[in-house]
Amino acid sequence: MNMTLDSLIVKLGQIVAEFGTRLIAAIAIWIIGFWLVKKIVASISFAMKRHDVEPSLATFLQSFLSITLKVFVIIIILTTMGVQMTSIVAVLGAASLAIGMALSGTLQNVAGGMIILFFKPFKVNDAIVTADGKSGVVKKIMIFTTELHTFDNQVLFLPNGALANGVITNLSQGKNRRTDITVGISYGDDVEKARRVVLKILSKDKRVLKNPAPETFLASLDDSSVTLTVRYWTSFDDLLAARADILETIYKEFPKNKLNFPFPQMDVHVKKS
């Protein structure tokens, strides 16, 4: 009985010692492995910056490499703990199938990220408008999401799958932008004078491009106004500021030239019986 108990204690001690050794080794691999992953990713990031790799591609590759290396470290840890490789492969196979079915949207986002990087509908620092009306500047393109900073300084994380499959307006492609402004004058006002005043305002603004030349034309005869369209081109950077200044100048100059801004009105005719 004593021999059996002693043998059991010795066997248990051996198991504990072996498990403890494996556990210590696994913890060491975890710490060293993840530290090495961090250093490798940082080194590759530095190398890509030195070789002027496009920021959007660099961010995506860093994320992909980091996840891949971390999975590799975890597999080594499981092997160190005594898990058979065949078991790991079987579990990974079953898990991949289950995860693939459960996270089909996530995998779609990964594919969407690759499509964005390959076809480049936009890149980091581009100003875009998404299909659902979200607008801002792209700061990062990652494996699953794209980080967008809106013009009022909100941070949005948009799924790559939706971006790759949706309509994207890239405001940064094309250096120059056309602006159309609608201006109404009262019936009876001189349309030609209004055109001359507007064109003079545009000619004095250095932000307005000479080619294509600015133009002003009669757009419609509305209920309360004669509506003119003012059309001109500026650089993308001057788009908003130039529009605001030109509108303000028109508002100041029209009254000086006896041109009136109409307001909705209704003529009432009273018939006496």
Description of the structure:
The protein has a five-stranded antiparallel beta sheet. The model has no long low-confidence stretch (mean pLDDT 83). The chain has three domains: 11-102, Helix Hairpins (Orthogonal Bundle), CATH 1.10.287.1260; 112-170, SH3 type barrels, CATH 2.30.30; 176-256, 2-Layer Sandwich (Alpha-Beta Plaits). The protein is elongated. It has helices at 2-50, 55-80, 85-102, 104-119, 160-165, 191-204, 239-256; strands at residues 127-129, 135-141, 145-149, 155-159, 169-170, 176-185, 215-221, 226-235. It is α+β, with helices and mostly antiparallel strands. The N and C termini lie far apart (129 Å). The chain is 54% helix and 18% strand. α1 (2-50) packs antiparallel against α2 (55-80) and α6 (191-204) packs across α7 (239-256).
Write the layout of secondary structure elements.
Layout lengths: L1 H49 L4 H26 L4 H18 L1 H16 L7 E3 L5 E7 L3 E5 L5 E5 H6 L3 E2 L5 E10 L5 H14 L10 E7 L4 E10 L3 H18 L17
Antiparallel strand pairs: 1-2, 1-5, 2-3, 3-4, 6-8, 7-8
Helix pairs in contact: 1-2, 6-7
Oligomer: single chain
How many separate domains make up the residues? 3
Total DSSP helices: 7
How much of the sequence lies in strands comes to 15-25%
Radius of gyration: 34 Å
CATH structural fold name of the largest domain: Helix Hairpins
> How many beta strands in the DSSP annotation?
8
Averaged pLDDT? 83
Structural class: alpha+beta
Helical proportion, percent range: 40-55%
- The CATH class designation of the largest domain is Mainly Alpha
CATH architectural designation of the largest domain = Orthogonal Bundle
